Amino acid sequence: MAIGLLGTKVGMTQVYDDKGVLAPVTVLQIGPCRVLQVRNQERDGYDALQLGYKDKARRKATRADRGHVSDELKSKRRKLREESGETPPPKPNCEPQRYIREVRLESAATHEVGKILTAKEVFENIKAVDVIGTSKGRGYTGVMVRHNFGGLRTSHGVKKGSRQHGSICSNASNRGSGRPKKGIRMAGQYGNTLVTSRNLRVVKIDDENHVLLVRGAVPGPNGGLVLVRPTNKKD
């Protein structure tokens, strides 16, 4: 997987693309993201970058938050590691970060701890991206809202059953067990799940304001956290 960046969804608008066609776009405030840790095969068993996005106020940060990014904070555990001769991993020596995510890599990382990644640097030659976000939570709903069911008849004789999902008898279950099949669509929580919008075309990158414009809709509310990565969908 290629390097991705954290950001927030700003909203939607429309702009003219490079071909002069009016395109509906989502405005994403991407980065800058700081590299907090570098994972490698030797120490961790996999290659990845740990990224931090947005500074957290120190009054809201715990000692663990501050010790994760700073060499200056002293602790008993760090003292014991130093006395035993163990060399702790390098720290970025920055402010505590509000959002921290890891991005898996296909090969060893070439970035150092403390480096700041921007949208221009990561997505400059990328034509399409995948955007991962948490969809809006809509509470617990029935099957007509959640799964777009048509419901039963509304004629005489269908007593209070016009919005039900229908039978879940043996035709819809695993025969012999008496239990409904896994994944059968029923009423339940609608939304509030991790959703990936794939293969969204990059329309424009504003390096000065760290803004990325992508064609189409992105999951989640305005202000919601998103992870943007180069698409892995093959044409």
In short:
Helices cover 10% and strands 34% of the residues. The chain is mostly beta strands. The radius of gyration is 24 Å and the shape is extended.
Number of strands: 12
Architecture of the domain at 33-117, CATH level 2?
2-Layer Sandwich
Radius of gyration: 24 Å
**What's the story with the biggest beta sheet?**
6 strands, antiparallel, barrel
Low-pLDDT residue spans: none
Quick tags:
235 residues, mainly beta, Double Stranded RNA Binding Domain, six-stranded antiparallel β-barrel, 34% strand, extended
Provide structural commentary.
- With 235 residues, the protein is mainly beta.
- It has a domain at 33-117: Double Stranded RNA Binding Domain, CATH 3.30.160.
- It contains 4 helices and 12 strands; from the N terminus they run E-E-E-E-H-H-E-E-H-E-E-H-E-E-E-E.
- The strands form 3 sheets. Strands 1-2-11-10-7-12 form a 6-stranded antiparallel barrel.
- The longest helix is centred in the middle third of the chain and has 8 residues, at 76-83.
- The model has no long low-confidence stretch (mean pLDDT 88).
